[in-house]
UniProtKB/TrEMBL annotation:
Occurrences of domain Glycosyl transferase family (ranges): 199-364
Protein name as it appears in the record: Glycosyltransferase
Residues that span the membrane, as ranges: none
Molecular function as annotated in GO: glycosyltransferase activity
Species the sequence originates in: Aminobacter anthyllidis
SUPFAM superfamilies, A to Z: UDP-Glycosyltransferase/glycogen phosphorylase
InterPro entries: Glyco_trans_1, Glyco_trans_4-like_N, Glycosyltransferase_grp1
Taxonomy, superkingdom: Bacteria
Pfam families membership: Glyco_transf_4, Glycos_transf_1
Matching PANTHER family: SLL1723 PROTEIN (PTHR45947:SF14), SULFOQUINOVOSYL TRANSFERASE SQD2 (PTHR45947)
């Protein structure tokens, strides 16, 4: 079976879930190829792996040599860009004809494939995986119906959480063509430590891109509130990741008077991230709906932290409650509620024994519902089933 993954950039450090899914397919004997807008080899050394350079199906740029024009054309806006890019997508879509199944990550790529399907002979079933911004932004501006052609041409829509599933069905997708498929983590590769802080200083950590939806602003404000209310609590906070809000968050920490306890480390190699996670007690990710409607799916970083035994603190946001149940597998606060978030952090500091019980339950939850080996088994089964429908047709 030949499967094509359609993505924007390949490989991408911010989309390790795509790499995990491709790896799972390769391990199950599926011939994988990639069609993308650009490759990042030599640019992101943390994932510059021979496996991705040597995929059995190869790596092709969608527009071929004309892909060099994409940055210039992207300066156009609205209908002009849409018409030009769609015409080029259709013209160069022949490279998709050799595949048995097409997997498009993110709704925009599903839309590109579906439009091409409508205009030329592409018989491979299309699976579109919806992750976050591709649902949240059009929900925000009332344009989720833009995916109508995806619903018509595609065989299956796979949103990463139930919240998105409901939204897609409301937008016109047939219910029997929409199924939740979680992203996951390899729990066997993540050692469970069970972070016991006891009398030690409370070590908190966040690993994310510093964008609005990650809510790091509210983590900083909550920690300042905890320090004001309970100055005897000894704590430190490490933030790993870059992004457009890095400087603003450094400035906010200084304004709140907590910069001496907060370390902004920027992007770090995966090995260092794993080491720092193993040294921390609490993982903080107070996600929020961004001003443009951007949403989380279910953050893989939360899964990794829960599998490792950290106490996680997050928010009632998008699909996060499908992973974290307040008081049972972690702690949740309402979005943007600094006081409630601060109370959760104080509770953690005061209840180390209860946090150990949360950690055990959290690990079990990830093993049962978010283990990538099980999820990749199910995904491969789905691909084989869809490929069989093409053969039958």
């Amino acid at each position: 079976m030949k499967v094509c993954f359609v993505v924007d950039k390949f490989p991408s450090l911010s989309e390790t879930f795509v790499l995990d899914q491709i790896s799972g397919c390769l391990e199950r004997g599926i011939e994988v190829g990639v069609v993308c807008n650009e490759t990042t080899f030599g640019k992101e050394r943390n994932i510059d792996d021979p496996r991705w350079r040597n995929l059995p199906g190869g790596i092709e740029q969608w527009w071929g040599a004309l892909g060099l024009l994409r940055p210039s054309l992207r300066r156009w806006s609205g209908r002009l860009w849409d018409k030009a890019s769609t015409a080029l997508d259709i013209a160069f879509a022949g490279k998709l004809e050799k595949y048995d199944v097409i997997v498009a990550h993110f709704g925009n790529n599903g839309l590109r494939v579906a439009r091409a399907m409508k205009q030329r002979r592409l018989t491979a079933p299309l699976v579109t995986i919806f992750h976050g911004h591709d649902v949240g932004a059009p929900m925000h501006d009332g344009t989720l119906s833009r995916y109508e052609v995806v619903f018509q041409q595609g065989a299956l829509q796979l949103p990463v959480n139930g919240f998105f599933r409901d939204a897609l069905i409301k937008a016109g997708a047939e219910a029997d063509t929409v199924a939740v498929h979680h992203m996951g983590v390899n729990t066997e590769a993540i050692g469970f430590r069970g972070a016991k802080h006891g009398s030690d200083p409370l070590a908190l950590i966040s690993v994310c891109r510093l964008t609005e939806k990650k809510g790091i602003e509210f983590a900083l404000r909550a920690l300042a509130g905890m320090q004001a209310a309970r100055p005897e609590i000894d704590w430190s906070y490490t933030v790993i990741g870059g992004g457009e809000l890095l400087d603003a968050m450094k400035q906010l920490a200084a304004e709140l008077g907590i910069s001496g306890r907060v370390a902004f480390l920027g992007p770090r190699p995966h090995a260092e991230v794993k080491q720092r996670l193993s040294e921390a007690h609490v993982f903080v990710l107070p996600s929020v709906r961004a001003g443009d409607g951007d949403l989380e799916g279910i953050p893989v970083a939360l899964m990794e932290a829960m599998a490792a035994g950290l106490t996680v603190v997050s928010t009632y946001h998008s699909g996060i409650p499908e992973l974290v149940e307040d008081g049972k597998t972690g702690l949740l606060a309402p979005e943007r509620d600094v006081a409630a978030l601060a109370q959760k952090l104080v509770w953690i500091a005061d209840n180390p024994g209860a946090c150990e019980s949360l950690a055990v339950a959290a690990r079990r939850k990830v093993e049962e519902d978010f283990d990538s080996v099980r999820l990749n088994d199910a995904f491969a089964d789905t691909l084989y089933r869809l490929a069989a429908t093409k053969v039958a047709a």
